[in-house]
Design goal:
The chain is 29% helix and 24% strand. By secondary structure, the protein is of the alpha/beta class. The longest helix has 18 residues.
Length: 221
């Protein structure tokens, strides 16, 4: 484990390499002073842990008693541009889990886009306390008939979806009813970016994400 300081969060963060059957993964820890939960969040198939929502959660959540672990899947650590098959992503997440659980705290399994799908698929078997699904890709853009709702509905644990109002992978009104909570980021796209003409600023859009997650995490037993 090595010390890292990129300006995110008040506490000193650390980076940890973790060996998995899918290759070497990396966890960047953002510790809370008095943690009661760990929130593990991974990236999507087209980006990394520098995504605006993941960075914002790492900055805000530790003050709410939540240690944040931003997780880079092995394919990303290896510098590859294309994510592997879902089963390989799941293998990597399973390999990372013991390190996430090592602090001895309940772990919220989370991620954005493809990372959210991994969290939903593996929550039950890994014993996740809850699931955070950021920009859940309900279907490929323009193909609503290819729904992935079964993954979301099958998480088996308390689940929060945070979805952009204009996400081409599934707008909030497209989501089926189910035992999960959904918070909309008005005007947000798949990366929660909002157009300049929107009635909220980019900072306000990101605050919708962090406020929703902080409030939800605080409600978890």
């Amino acid at each position: 484990m090595s010390d890292v300081n990129d300006g995110i969060g008040a506490a000193r963060e650390t980076a940890e390499a973790v060996e998995t059957e899918a290759g070497t993964a990396r966890i960047t820890w953002h510790p809370a002073h008095e943690p009661r939960l760990v929130l593990a969040v991974s990236h999507g198939a087209g980006g990394g842990i520098e995504a605006r929502d993941l960075k914002a959660l790492a900055e805000v959540l530790p003050a709410h008693g939540v240690t944040v672990a931003r997780v880079e899947q092995p394919w990303r650590v290896a510098g590859k541009k294309l994510a592997p098959a879902p089963r390989t992503l799941d293998t990597g997440w399973r390999g990372i889990w013991p390190a996430l659980a090592a602090p001895g705290l309940p772990v919220i399994s989370g991620g954005r886009s493809a990372g959210a799908r991994v969290a939903c698929r593996t929550a039950g078997e890994l014993g996740a306390h809850a699931v955070l699904a950021l920009s859940f890709p309900l279907h490929p853009p323009g193909k609503p008939e290819k729904s992935r709702a079964a993954e979301l509905l099958g998480s088996g644990v308390p689940t929060l979806v945070v979805q952009g109002g204009n996400d081409p992978f599934g707008r909030p009104e497209e989501f089926p009813e189910g035992a999960y909570a959904l918070v909309e980021v008005p005007y947000g796209d798949h990366g929660f970016a909002v157009p300049k003409r929107a009635e909220i600023s980019q900072d306000e859009a990101v605050a919708v994400v962090t406020d929703a997650v902080a409030g939800w995490a605080g409600s978890l037993g």
